[in-house]
Amino acid sequence: MIVGVVGGGQLARMMIPAAIELGVEIRVLAEGEGMSASLAATAVGDYRDASVVLAFAEDVDVITFDHEHVPQEVLRALVDAGVAVHPGPDALRFAQDKRQMRARMAELGVPQPDWAPVDAVGDLERFLADHGGVGVVKTATGGYDGKGVRVVRSAAEASDWLDGAAAGGPRLLVEELVPFSRELAQLIARRPSGEAVVWPLVQTVQEQGICVEVLAPAPHAASIQPVVDDVARAVAEGIGVTGVLAIEMFETTDGRVLINELAMRPHNSGHWTIDGAVTSQFEQHLRAVLDLPLGSTALLAPTSVMVNVIGGPDSGSMTDRYASALAAHPDVKVHSYAKSARPGRKVGHVTAVGDELDEVAYRARAAAAQFDA
Q1: Which of 54, 236, 344, 366 has the fewest CB atoms below 10 angstroms from its CB?
Q2: Rounded-to-integer distance, Cα 48 and Cα 195, Å
Q3: Nearest one of 16, 10, 6 to 40, comparing CA atoms
Q4: Exposed, middle or buried, 220 (CB in 10 Å: 0-12/13-18/19+)?
Q5: Which fold would CATH assign to domain 180-369?
Q6: Torsion angle in degrees (nearest 10) through CA of 236, 191, 41, 341
Q7: What is each CA distance from 285 to 37, 47, 147, 151, 190, in whole angstroms?
Q8: Strand 303-310 and strand 210-216: pairing?
Q9: Which residues pair with residue 29 across a beta bridge?
C-alpha cells in the first residue's frame, strides 16, 4: 500500500513514523526543498498545477493531504483520472470555503454562531445592526492561525476587505461575536466504508490567534461529551469526510457548544494523541484513507498536555537545546518539526502525560520553555 501526501509540512512529517509502523509506504509532494517532511519527499512541485499532482499520483493507492489548499480543479482532475482522493473534493470544499461550510452546517442543523454572507456594505451594516453593533468579519478562504479574522463595529473597519472582495479577492462573511468561556476541539476519524471513531474532547488555549497548548481530555467536559460526539458524527457523515476531521468549537458562557471551524486532516489539537492515546491521529488518518479498520482511541494516561514551541530559539534549531532540555525533562516527549526559528512559527511541540492535570501541565510548560528564544 502506498499513500501519497500532498504538502511537505509537519503534518506529513508526523505521518512518516505511523506509516513505518503500519508497513505502509508514504510518498510526499513537497512545495520546496528542505521542508519539514523532506525525509519522505519523493517529489517537489507546485500543488496548484494539476499536471504535477497527477504525475505524483500515478502509482500511489490513495492521495491525502498535509493542508487544505489544493485547488478544487486539481482535486477534480485527480478524481476524473480515477485516483482515490481522501478526503475528496466534495468534502474538502467545506474546509476551503467558510461560507460553504456555514451554509452546510445550517443544513445539517448543528449548532454554530449566527452568520451571514457579506457581498456588499449593506450586508455587513444590517448584520451589525441586528447583533449589537459588533461582528466578526472573516475571509471565506485563506485564513489560518488568526489571519483573515477581524472584529468590527462598523462597516468602515472592513472597507479594505470589502474593496478587495469587489475586485476579485476573497469573499467575506460575518459571524456573531460569541461570548465564550473556552475553546474546544473534537477529533473524529471516518473511513470510506462509514466506520467512525472519536477521541476525547480537548480544550485548546489560544494566544494571538495561535494555539499554544492543548489539554486532553478537556477538564469538566463529561456532561457535554455525548452531545459533542453526536455533533461530530453528524458533521463527518453529513459532509462525507474520510480521514481525520477536527472540529474547533466555542463553549459559550451560557453552556452551549458552537462550531467555529473545520479542518480535514490531522490537526494541532490532536498532536497529544502520539503519546497519549492508543492510536495517534496520524496512524488513524492513514488507516482511514486506506479504508482499514480504525484503531482504539483510548487514553494511555488520565491526562495529556501538549504545548507548542512557538518561534523557537533565537538562532539554530530546537535540537541545539536538546542536551539541556532532555536532561531536565526526561519524562516529557519532545517533537521537532525540523524548521528554522521564526516569530509566530510552530517549530515543534512537547507532550507530558500523567494522572493529575496541574502537575502534567507544569511539566509540559517547563519543557517547552527550554526552547524559548
Answers
A1: 344
A2: 31
A3: 16
A4: exposed
A5: D-amino Acid Aminotransferase; Chain A, domain 1 (3.30.470)
A6: 40
A7: 16, 20, 26, 34, 8
A8: antiparallel
A9: 6, 43
Residues 302-330 have a mean pLDDT of 90
Binding site as annotated, residues: 98, 138, 175-178, 183, 260-261
Written as nine digits, the cell of 367 is 519543557
- Is the preceding peptide bond at 217 cis, omega within 30 degrees of 0? yes
Closest CA to 236 of 283, 187, 185: 187
Tens of pLDDT, residue by residue over 95-118, are 999 999 999 999 999 999 999 999
pLDDT exceeds cutoff 60 at 145:
no
The residue extents of the domains of the chain are 2-85, 114-175, 180-369
Task: Name the H helices within 197-280.
Answer: 225-239, 273-276
Contacts of 354 (CB under 8 A, 6+ apart): 301, 302, 303, 360, 363
Determine if the pTM surpasses 0.90.
yes
Neighbours of 16 (CB within 10 A): 16
Confidence of residue 146 (pLDDT cuts 50, 70, 90): low
Query: pLDDT tier at 68 (50, 70, 90 boundaries)?
Result: very high
Domain boundaries 2-85, CATH class: alpha beta
Grid coordinates in use for 353?
502525560
Does 3.40.50.620 match the CATH number of domain 114-175? no
In the structure grid, which three cell numbers stand for residue 50, read together? 494539476
**pLDDT for residue 316 is more than 80:** no
Angle of helix 225-239 relative to helix 98-108, nearest 10 degrees? 110
Cα 262–226–353 angle (5° rounding)? 75
What is the C-alpha radius of gyration for the chain, rounded to an integer number of angstroms? 20
- Judged by phi (left if over 0) then psi (alpha if -120 to 50, else beta), residue 159 lies in alpha
Per-residue DSSP letter, 372: -
Q: How high is the pLDDT of residue 217?
A: 98
